[in-house]
Amino acid sequence: MRDRLSVVVGDITKLEVDAIVNAANEQLLRGGGVDGAIHRAAGPELQEECRKIGGCPTGEARLTKGYRLPARHVIHTVGPVWRGGNAGEPDFLAACYRNSISIANAQGFASIAFPAISTGIYGYPADEAAAIAVKTTMDALLELGGDPEKVIFCCFSEEGAAHHRAALDSILQ
Ligand code: AR6
């Protein structure tokens, strides 16, 4: 399992993988953060395809092409807004990872990269989110079998990466 999961610090829009995951909003309208960066790099065709999809409820995921990105596809998922932790946030966040991996599995994508969903504008505590990201991903890979062979947690800061590495170490020890 350890060799299928990696943690990197960097810009997810630069990754050449079968799919990158976008931390989107329920309207699937271009926003800020990683969403803004992905739309900027992909070009206007991405917003056009998102507009046709029409939206995505929190916890679910939708697939589009990657257009001008080096990634071939984008899986848009909508993380929960942090409201203190008692409004179902952990279950919604886990659903984002599970549903994104499920799409990658069904599509036969060998490689997928996640940003730290909900930990920016949506305010989810980064350490708690990393623990859910890693645990849910490992469970989904074991349950589904096959693809994706490689999952990258692409963090925007060294601190974010440290949270993911710590979560990996604590589960795999
Ligand atoms: N590559 C990798 N990670 C990034 C990048 C990048 N280029 N840019 C930012 N991050 P956020 P959210 C990190 O705010 O909290 C948008 O407006 C960032 O440092 O992008 O789920 C949407 O439209 C943080 O660790 O997403 C929604 O309205 C992580 O990505 C809302 O924000 C997620 O931060 C979603 O908020």
Descriptors:
6-stranded mixed beta sheet, 17% strand, 173 residues, Macro_dom-like, O-acetyl-ADP-ribose deacetylase, O-acetyl-ADP-ribose deacetylase activity, binds ligand AR6, 42% helix, alpha/beta
Question: Can you walk through the features of this model?
Answer:
With 173 residues, the chain is of the alpha/beta class. It has one domain: Leucine Aminopeptidase, subunit E, domain 1 (3-Layer(aba) Sandwich). The chain has helices at 33-42, 44-53, 89-107, 126-144, 158-172, and strands at 5-9, 19-23, 61-65, 73-77, 111-114, 150-155. The protein has a 6-stranded mixed sheet, with helices on both faces. Helix 4 links the parallel strand 5 (111-114) and strand 6 (150-155). The protein is globular. The model has no long low-confidence stretch (mean pLDDT 98). It binds ligand AR6. Ligand AR6 is lined by residues 11-13, 23-25, 31-35, 37, 79, 115-122, 154, 156, 160.
Topology:
Layout: E1 5-9, E2 19-23, H1 33-42, H2 44-53, E3 61-65, E4 73-77, H3 89-107, E5 111-114, H4 126-144, E6 150-155, H5 158-172
Parallel strand pairs: 1-6, 2-4, 2-5, 5-6
Antiparallel strand pairs: 3-4
Bound molecules: ligand AR6.
What does this entry show, briefly?
By secondary structure, the protein is α/β, with parallel strands linked by helices.
Q: What best-fitting shape do the alpha-carbon axes yield?
A: globular
Rg, rounded, reads 14 Å
* The first-level CATH class name: Alpha Beta
Strand order of the largest sheet: 1-6-5-2-4-3
End-to-end gap: 12 Å
Coarse structural class:
alpha/beta
Average predicted confidence as pLDDT: 98
- Parts with pLDDT < 50 across at least 5 consecutive residues: none
**Number of individual domains:** 1
Domain Macro: 1-172
GO molecular function, one term: O-acetyl-ADP-ribose deacetylase activity
Protein name: O-acetyl-ADP-ribose deacetylase
Pfam families: Macro
